[in-house]
Amino acid sequence: MQSLGRTRPPPVNGLRRDPAPSRWQYRMQRLWLTPLFRVVCRLGVPLTVVALIATGVLYSDARRAAIVQSFVDLRTKFEQRPEFRVGLLSVEGASRDLTDAVRAKLALKLPQSSFDLDMTELRARAEALDAVASAELRVRSGGVLQVILTERVPVVVWRGANGLQLLDATGHRVAGLSARADRADLPLVAGEGADAAMPEALAIFDTARPISDRVRGLVRVGARRWDLILDRDQRIMLPSVNPVAAVERLLELSAADKLLERDILSIDLRNQDRPAIRLAPFAMNEVRRAQGLAPTTESGL
Amino acid sequence: MTDLYQSQRAMRHMRRAAMQRGVVAILDVGTSKIACLVLRFDGLEDERDQDGVGPMAGQSSFRVIGAATTRSRGVRFGEIAVMNETERAIRTAVQAAQKMANVRVDHVIACFSGAEPRSYGLAGEWELQDSVVTEQDVARVLAACDVPDFGEGREILHAQPVNFALDHRSGLGDPRGQIGNRLACDLHMLSVDASVVQNLLYCIKRCDLELAGIASSAYVSGISSLVEDEQELGAACVDMGGGATGISIFMKKHMIYADSVRMGGDHVSSDISKGLQVPLVVAERIKTKHGGVHATGMDDREMIEMGGDSGDWEKDRRQISRTELIGIMRPRVEEILEEVRARLDAAGFDSLPSQQIVLTGGASQIPGLDGLASRILGQRVRMGRPLRVQGLPQAATGPAFSSAVGLCLFAAHPQDEWWDFDIPTERYPARSLKRAFRWFKDNW
Predict the structure, then answer these.
(1) CB of B88 within 8 Å of any CB in chain A?
(2) Phi/psi of residue A262, each to 5°?
(3) Averaged over B374-393, what is the pLDDT?
(4) Tell me: the pLDDT tens digits for B62-82?
(5) Which in A274, B12, B261, B269 has the greatest CB count within 10 A?
(6) From 3.40.50.11690, 1.10.1270.20, 2.60.40.10, 3.40.50.620, which CATH number describes the A154-260 domain?
(7) SS3 call for A139
(8) What is the pLDDT of residue A2?
């Protein structure tokens, strides 16, 4: 006795359904179990379809250009948003002249999108000015391009082939100078290659501070060593190696014998073992006279 | 002869190819069910010899990864009667097994129970030329066996060298390298109806599969359900299938006799169907649920509903007692067992040192069969179940699957058959390059 609710697949043409797979079903299943076929179906076919569609779409030049253009437009639109617009340039940390010079040098056309600003290039442009030691650029909120400058501090005046120039502690040019008297507070150096040995020069000036009222300046000789020039045209030839020690030695000699106050043309300290002194002609004659010798003839020197 | 030799060799090559691929299917084409197992070989065969682990009957190298059974259709007496029906049933089983294993199977090893197997014992002798047995000598002694006239339209299914004797020493397994003068061998040959094999081949080919081996189901169920010492000392395996009952006798681990009785469980069912006037399906169900061969007083009171949907209330409400059912089943089972007895007697089973009989197969599950069998076949009867193999589902471990499991073992470790040996040089065609090569190899 069967229940009425029992469901059974309806017999087709009065026959029971055959549990056996048809030949094609069987073959399909076997094909599907083939590893290579599976890989091809799962990866190869989708990839091929995607590749075909992509090729079909990109085949025409106009469509390709349109796609590129749409991306460019999107990008431009994004960049032109007010959040990214730079409207102000603020230069800080420098004198008014330098600020104006930097503004002129940067030559920015504002307002401009911050994406269009080439910060590296702008920084290089600001630092191209001699008076600028370093420049720091950043885009601040509110559309401000902030430039923070560090100025070069002039420490010496260099009288070189190109006239008077101000140099900083590293020997880099800061600015030109029209007259020595404009910066009488700075010591003077001269000679070719003086800017390259600026730390040494500063050390010498520092050491020679006890006689600073007499120091006129330093002369670089042969781009190799220094001559310290005092007033009354006294010249102190310093060695190329360790000139600071030579200056200290000179100061000691001077303190003991009042050497510098005497009538001396030059003191040669180049040979450490044998400092040499050159007397002025008058003093030389006086010495000879005191020794009972005839004075030298060349008194005109 | 050579034709068969070649085709069997081709099947061996196919088997080797399948092993290299690692996947092979087992197909047991029976009368009541078709079983398909998918085996995966792990390639451990070479390593096993080195690390001292025993062969474990070849089990360690394979694993069952797919199993399916389906009701057989179009098979009668273990032979294919309706080709396309059988083909569909094979397809069903193979597809389900493939689905479970999730691999595609291309090679199949099949067994069948019918086709009137006939056993022949062959003997051959060969005078050795230089006192040491070489592979060529083994080939020659096998070739020297005088093949009996096994009739038109029959083919050799198995031809296994069972025993080698050198002069007076017999019982040699592997005579190569031994010294003597006269080499003799015994060969067991099993011939079956060629048309049955052809039909099976055709069906398997129609399923896009390649046959990598073929075996008699009596032989393979003997491999799986006889334990090792039974195979060694001598035992008979009776595989009671649906349409045919296979008999195989083993001795010294070799099959020495095989036969089949063309009666089985389906005949019991048809007896019930005829006797009780019920459909075959109902008869089959009653047989499996309530069947037996020994009636007791209890069975008189156990009434069995037969059911039916003829519309006639009287007919549909019939009941029989279990005793009546046993009364129908028992004569047929007795008939089968007596036929088996007759075949065993004809084979000279009495003269074996050990006369163990193992009953297996689906029809051996009738309750009380062991008692009845020991009355007819002799005292030493036991029920056999197949060996346990790796990965076999629980549902496929019953005695009905002993030939399928045996076929797994056969696939993993086939016994050396005649076609596994070399062809003697003289048998090559006269102008063959191989022959010249062989001559050089032998003489230089």
Answers:
(1) yes
(2) -80, 175
(3) 87
(4) 888 999 999 888 888 888 889
(5) B269
(6) 3.40.50.11690
(7) strand
(8) 46
